[in-house]
Amino acid sequence: MKNVDFGFGLASAGPSRRRALAAAVVVLGASLACRESLTQVDSGVVASSLRPALKIAEPLPDLAELVAGLPPGRRTPLVATWKESWNRGVAAGRPLREEVYRAAGSPALEFDSAAAASAAGAVRRALAEARSFDRSLSPHLSRALEEAERLLGEAEEAGSGADWSDSAVKALMAADALRETSPRTVALSLVEAAEAVLGPLRGGGDEEPANRARARRLAWWGRLAVDAGGHELAIQRGYYACLLLGVELP
Fold this sequence. Notes:
mainly alpha
């Protein structure tokens, strides 16, 4: 993995500077471990100085709503896979959702026109809310909003031609592009990125380098925070784990 500068100058720093920065990360990571909760906001940009995420108050349409009119035999597997995808970060969850989109777009499935139109409207409102947060969002958030806008345009175009199945799927894809920016998904993505580099612990970890051991603890604490609903805290822990490991984030 390549090193990346996260704003601390780590990628370009000399050995002494790296050690000092790593020590600062450990101190901050330890202080985060002692905090049970962080300031909660109704909506806005979360963890803006680390790996920003968007907390959108506007409800987003989900697959269960869109396929409510389908027979259970067709509906249940799709919804189960889609829901499971959100228990994973973007790298692992997105491929599962792409399978759902392909299956949901099958000509054998027909979606309710009212549900498709309602979904597009909800995404439009959520996008407006997200755009109101800040005009200088970080690149990964800006890309997500642009993708959601593109997909929403396709959903509305399909709806204008009464292709409700395509409209519904594209509206869901647009909503999911916004969901990927949520604090929980951003936290899971960071934790999983660190875990992918760390791999399984071998030999009890006695010979593991200090920075890897610290990153492993931060990643573990990040998972605990996700499970407890402390998503901003999980973002911070996962971010610093990635920083110690030199993980390059897109």
